[in-house]
């Protein structure tokens, strides 16, 4: 028999297996990132809807919107200027289209007092992400807007409506 034949795994086969495992790990990591982003988007939608529902309920019970005493009070123009400074003119223009669609031409926007509406489980609007991490409510439509904006992939949200 030939004594030069060796049994076992060749170096090439071992390298190929390692490459395939690395590719699978990369795909799993990439899909995991997408799932986490989807969870963040769902959380934003849920928080936004919870705040909006609680604000509407507060209004029905108390006859007033739950404005935070000493909180932010801005006009539509000031809201758009804030967004222009933070995200640029294009995003500000897109937000303006949503505000017009929602009949917010002459609206003022007030900081919602989260304690008044008894919402403590929200991940957004509690100023944990900065001073502009607040929800605003329109004085004309009672529609709720997220002042800081939620960025998801290439979209930016202020409500459950995307800026397309």
- Distance between the first and last residues' Cα: 74 Å
Query: Which oligomerization state do the chains in this entry correspond to?
Result: single chain
Largest sheet: 4 strands, antiparallel
In the predicted model, the low-confidence regions spanning at least 5 consecutive residues are none
Task: Return the average pLDDT rounded to an integer.
Answer: 82
SS class: alpha+beta
Strand line-up of the largest beta sheet = 1-2-3-4
Helix-residue proportion: 40-55%
Shape: elongated
- Specify Rg, calculated over alpha carbons: 25 Å
Helix-strand sequence: HEHHEEEEE
Number of strands: 6
Fold topology:
Blueprint: H1 11-62, E1 73-75, H2 76-87, H3 89-101, E2 108-111, E3 135-138, E4 144-146, E5 150-152, E6 155-157
Helix pairs in contact: 2-3
List keywords for this structure.
four-stranded antiparallel beta sheet; 6 strands; two-stranded antiparallel ribbon; alpha+beta; elongated; 164 residues
Detailed description of the structure:
With 164 residues, the chain is an alpha+beta fold. The chain has a domain at 65-164. Helix content is 47%, strand content 12%. The chain has helices at residues 11-62, 76-87, 89-101; strands spanning 73-75, 108-111, 135-138, 144-146, 150-152, 155-157. The strands form two sheets. The protein has a four-stranded antiparallel beta sheet. A hairpin with a 2-residue loop joins strand 5 and strand 6. Helix 2 packs antiparallel against helix 3 (89-101). The protein is elongated and about 90 Å long.
């Amino acid at each position: 028999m030939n004594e030069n034949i060796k049994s076992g795994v060749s170096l090439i086969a071992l390298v190929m297996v390692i490459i395939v495992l690395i590719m699978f790990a990369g795909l799993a990591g990439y899909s995991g990132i997408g799932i986490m982003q989807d969870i963040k988007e769902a959380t934003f939608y849920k928080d936004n809807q919870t705040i909006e529902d609680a604000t509407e309920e507060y209004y029905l019970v108390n006859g007033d919107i739950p404005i935070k005493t000493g909180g932010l009070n801005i006009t539509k123009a000031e809201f758009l200027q804030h967004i222009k400074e933070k995200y640029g003119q294009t995003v500000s223009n897109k937000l303006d289209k949503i505000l017009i669609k929602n009949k917010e031409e002459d609206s003022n926007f007030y900081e919602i007092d989260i304690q008044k509406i008894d919402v403590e489980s929200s991940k957004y609007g509690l100023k944990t992400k900065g001073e502009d991490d607040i929800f605003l409510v329109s004085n004309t439509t009672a529609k709720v807007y997220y002042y800081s904006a939620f960025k998801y992939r290439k979209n930016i949200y202020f409500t459950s409506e995307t800026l397309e």
